[in-house]
Specification:
Elements lengths: L3 H6 L40 E13 L4 E12 L5 E6 L3 E7 L4 E2 L2 E3 L8 E6 L6 E7 L7 E4 L11 E4 L19 E9 L5 E4 L12 E11 L5 E4 L2 E6 L2 E5 L1 H10 L3 H12 L7 E5 L8 E2 L4 E4 L12 H8 L7 E3 L6 H19 L1 H22 L23 H18 L1 H14 L3 E3 L1 H9 L4 H7 L1 H6 L13 H14 L14 H10 L6 H11 L7 H13 L6 H10 L3 H11 L3 H14 L5 H11 L3
Helix pairs in contact: 3-4, 3-5, 4-5, 5-6, 5-7, 6-7, 6-13, 7-8, 12-13, 13-15, 15-16, 15-17, 16-18, 17-19
Length: 625
């Protein structure tokens, strides 16, 4: 095996340095671990033996080859004097491994592939080893990284890349301990083609560097799934206070206007659960292929452009990702079986932020829509399915399968029930203490349940039924209900329409996005052609520029075979890659042979523009080969 420097020099041209061994003999075994970290079935790492505490990245971005090339230097704590460091990798080409600042070569090997988990990288270390240097490059097919051609961006002139590391995709672009139980700080040097800008889940620049070299620091310890990088033609706009927005020039002003209330949201969140501990809170608006609504990468939320509605009606997503700065980023689920600790808390907290900024009535509509999402998810999964538990069992499966509305909405409604039982003031004190006591740590469901029980009386615990909520299936009977005049009116208009009132006579003036969604959801899944025509003629739903309203309408259009909306459907499915919208629409399409044929035609065009996360989901729905 060549030394790391020699092998790295050839990395831009060669992709086949020896992958099976470092050439210095087999990697040895380990000693008995210290059991501080929970077992994670989705990681090969053994942090109870040797744990990564800091990562120094030095990467060059090669757009023509669609590769990240460089070095990851890991600062480790050999807790047991072990002779082996185990890391997670997937589709990485390892060029060499050395130890210490002197770069002394050491033994290393890659284990056998294990599906989405990838391959373990086993490295021989000494009891006093503190730094492990890995020279490597990513694959063009790295599942975390999407490389966009200029035509796939708003500007159409420069390429773009972004990463999506959750749940276990960080290992496809960095060799590390890819488990949420392990937290580490990091620094990075990222070299990009001029005049592009690089940003990360770290302290970021606000202007492009003339040399194309960017330095980053993340001083707070984070889990691996919050490692994030984006490179593109970006501009920055200050939003006041500690907030700002990055976006392509074509959408940066629109984005800044849409997110103008971000500073208010930060203030509201701090008033509820204490100081924001990450310095700045900025937002990066990504190209449309981003598979999620948002990703809570610390200091820099990655957001879909589908929330740019032009009326600030969809900014609850910003509140959600901001709330993650406490629930998820500050206190993290220790394994993906505990995912609800991230998302249930965050969905509940999001609603509280929206209540403070936009009023109780608005927050109640969001909570009601969330309950509808939960009911639909449970119906889809089955009321007795183990996947409707809050505490999951995802061993042997892709943890992405656990990222359903159960974690978000069942978790949020469980916490809403606890709040109603304890009283808001006492509950808020309890939650803030949970965050404070566990700041920059990872926690299991069992730790939280124990913490909760210690703060409840026996009568309160019995009233809540913790085990039924956390370890039981379906939706418990004591789920809280929410109501408001706006919810009642939106549903009443749906009833009036179904009873024969003309669309133009319905009381819809001044409706928010959420009222339109409540109205559309209150209608039957399938409407008559006459009803669809009447609604579309009056409210121009097929041409709506609001992604949430358009999605709800297109679901009706597919179920009702409303051909007028099919061009809009095709445009919608080929112009963005947000999985929240893609998955239900494709599922609805495949319910008929004609619909499945239409879906296959659309997907053939759209698939290359989707992120691998979305591709995997739609491939399964369509049986794509």
């Amino acid at each position: 095996m060549k030394t790391s420097v020699a092998c790295l020099a050839a990395a831009a041209l060669l992709t086949a340095c020896a992958q099976t061994s470092g050439g210095l003999g087999p990697v040895q075994g380990s000693r008995s671990p210290i059991a501080d970290y929970p077992d994670d079935p989705h990681s090969f790492s053994t942090p109870n033996d040797v744990v990564v505490e800091h990562i120094d990245l030095d990467l060059s971005v090669n757009f023509p080859a669609k590769r990240l090339v460089g070095r990851a230097s890991l600062v480790v704590n050999n807790r047991t004097g072990s002779d082996t460091l185990r890391l997670d990798t997937r589709d990485l080409t390892i060029h060499g491994v050395t130890l210490g600042s002197d770069a002394v070569p050491t033994r290393w090997s890659l284990g056998e592939p294990a599906g989405v988990q990838g391959r373990p990288l086993l490295i021989t270390v000494a009891p006093d080893t503190r730094r492990v240097n890995i020279d490597y490059e990513t694959s063009p097919e790295a599942a975390a990284v999407q490389w966009l051609d200029p035509a796939q961006t708003s500007g159409g002139k420069w390429p773009f890349l972004f990463t999506q590391s959750q749940a276990i995709l960080a290992r496809t672009w960095i060799p590390l301990q890819d488990t949420p139980a392990v937290r580490f700080t990091y620094s990075a040097t990222i070299r990009v083609p001029k005049p592009l800008m690089a940003v990360m889940s770290a302290e970021n620049p606000t202007e492009a560097d003339p040399d194309g070299t960017y330095e980053f620091e993340m001083p707070q310890p984070i889990p691996s799934y919050l490692m994030a990088l984006a490179v593109g033609d970006l501009e920055f706009r200050d939003l006041g206070g500690r907030a700002g927005v990055y976006a392509e020039p074509a959408v940066v002003e629109k984005s800044a206007w849409e997110f103008a209330d971000t500073a208010k949201m930060i203030d509201a969140a701090e008033q509820i659960y204490g100081p924001y501990q990450w310095g700045r809170y900025d937002i990066l608006v990504l190209p449309p292929s981003f598979p999620f609504g948002g990703m809570e990468n610390p200091r820099l939320t990655f957001a879909t452009p589908t929330i740019l509605a032009g009326d600030r009606s969809l900014v609850s997503l910003v509140a959600h990702e901001l709330a993650h700065s406490w629930s998820g980023n500050l206190v993290t689920n220790a394994t993906w079986d505990d995912f609800w600790l991230n998302e249930g808390f965050t969905t509940y907290f999001e609603n509280r932020i929206m209540e403070r900024v936009y009023g109780e009535g608005f927050a109640r509509m969001l909570a009601d829509l969330g309950r509808q999402d939960l009911e639909a998810e449970v119906q889809d999964l089955g009321a007795t399915s183990a996947d409707t538990h809050l505490k999951l069992d995802l061993a042997g499966r892709d943890p992405d399968e656990g990222m359903t509305d159960v974690a978000y909405e069942k978790g949020a409604h469980f916490l809403r029930l606890v709040e109603q039982t304890m009283g808001r003031e006492r509950f808020d004190s309890f939650v803030q203490k949970w965050f404070d006591d566990n700041a920059f740590k990872s926690a299991t469901t069992e730790q939280f349940v124990g913490y909760l029980r210690a703060n409840l009386s026996p009568e309160e615990e019995a009233r809540i039924g913790i085990d039924q909520w956390v370890y039981g299936p379906g939706i418990p009977a004591n789920i809280p209900t929410v109501q408001s005049d706006r919810i009642v009116n939106a549903r009443a208009q749906a009833v009036r329409f179904l009873e024969g009132t003309a669309a133009g006579e319905l009381t819809t003036e001044g409706w928010s996005t959420q009222e339109w969604l409540l109205f559309l959801r209150a209608l039957p899944a399938r409407l008559t052609s006459e009803q669809m025509v009447a609604l579309d003629r009056e409210f121009k739903l097929t041409s709506s520029g609001n992604s949430e309203i358009l999605f709800a309408w297109l679901m009706k259009a597919v179920a009702s075979d409303f051909e007028t909306a099919y061009p809009a459907l095709e445009e919608f499915l080929t112009s963005m890659g947000r999985r929240k919208f893609l998955e239900p629409l494709y599922k609805e399409l495949v319910k008929t042979e004609e619909g499945k044929a239409r879906a296959m035609r659309i997907y053939t065009v759209a698939r290359p523009t989707y992120h691998p996360v979305s591709q995997g989901t739609i491939d399964t729905i369509l049986g794509w080969k």
